[in-house]
Structure formats: structure tokens, C-alpha cells
Amino acid sequence: MGQASHKLRLDIGELGNGNLLVITGAGISAASGIPTFRGPEKDAVWRESDIRMATYEYFRRDPVGQLSWYLDRFFKARQAKPNSAHKALVDLEDWVERFGGTFQLVTQNIDTLHEMAGTRHLIKVHGSLERVRCSSVDCPNAAPHGSLPLPLEEIEAFRQNPSDSTLPRCPACSSILRAHVLFFDEHYFEHADYQFREVERSGSEAGLIVFVGTSFSVGVTELLVRLGHQRRVPMYSIDPAKGKYGQPGVTQISKTAETVLPRLVDALLHEV
Q: Is 126 a catalytic residue?
């Protein structure tokens, strides 16, 4: 696997204080057929789309247009299946806990592939495509604590006839439902489900931090890199971008997650 991969294997084998923190981005789901956001793929979302469409301001101005865009881009994610990288992280979680360590996975992805693969200790810091929430301020189904399962029948009716009259509505107050995701003009503390305090705690206690398939373009990765530097924790980035998204002090492994992670786990299991 190369020197960098071998060094990553040794660090996980020792793990310092026993706490492993893994942060995944869109790159881990690319092999499952879900386009990345800023990667080199020709169908990367932000190569085609205006970032302003992924804002709450745009939702308020044009909820029909925003929901149509959201469903066009992300509905395919519901058909995707976990790939070997997602499954390897489940095995890695088992391995760490088997020897008395702690494992925490923080994903920037709104897909459900980590859950489908079987990850137990998971924080979805940007929300989930399987849920919606009320756009009203005072509704119990709204932020900072409320959310609802995705209303598939209403969503399908909207897809067949996108209009104000078919927008999904809150069952409690009839306000328009919105995606239960963190838009670009929103903050991590706006909803309890994002568990940002728990992310901070995990970064402050990790003995090793591994980034997988992320471009380091959002606040949560900036926070965790800073915490890793402050505590002098070993940090690695698994991403095939060959240095495009490299960070000082983070050792880059320029390979895909589905190449590196299964080999990493296989090496660990065969050491025991």
C-alpha cells in the first residue's frame, strides 16, 4: 500500500489513548454512484450547480425550485448501496472496540450508506436525506429539536407536479417542510441532530484522526484539523486528489477509500 498507508496501519495499531476519530466526506460515497461536490468528477455537484441554491435564503424565495433541485441531485442517493469503504469502517469500529478503544465516525454526507453498512457510533453533522423538518419557527417539528421521516407519498406527488400546491406540508402546523440538512447560510448549532458539541468533544479526545474523501472545505473539517494540530495528534487524509486538498500537518494518502480502507482493516485483522 505504500509507506504512508503502512504508517497509518501502525498508528491505528497503537492508537495512543485508544480513541479513533474518522471524518468522511463525499469521496467515500463516489464508488456507490453518488457524485462528489468539489471533486474532479465531471458530474461533481458544484461544477454544475449554483451554491446559492443550497441555501435557506433560496428556499424561502423559491421553495418549489429549491426542492426540485434538491430532489434531482439527491434522490438517486436513496438507491445507492454501501461500498467496500463503508463496510471496512464497520470492521474497523469492531476492531477498535474489541481492544477497549473508542470509535467515532463523523460524516459530512447526508446519504444513509454508513447506517446501511452498520456503523454504530455515527454523527451526521450535515443532516440526513431521510428526514425533513418544519420551516416554521415555533413548531415542535422544527429546529432546534424537531424532524420527521421523509414523506415519500407527498414527495412523489411533488415530483410528478412541482408547484406550490404540492409542496410537502407539516402535519402539525401546515407550514412547508424543508430538507433536514445544513444549508450553506446556516450554522451547526441550529439543530441538535448535528451534534456539533459532540464533534468538538471527539476532536478534543481523539488519539488519531483520519479524514476520508473530504476536500476540507467546510467548518467541521477546519475545526478538527485545528484541534489535531493543537493536541499534536497524528492526522491522515485518504483521498485520490493528489494534494489538491492537502492540509499542512495532515499526511495524505492519494488513493481511493475503497482501495485503502479494506486493505488497512485486512492488515489489522491478520495481526491479531
A: yes
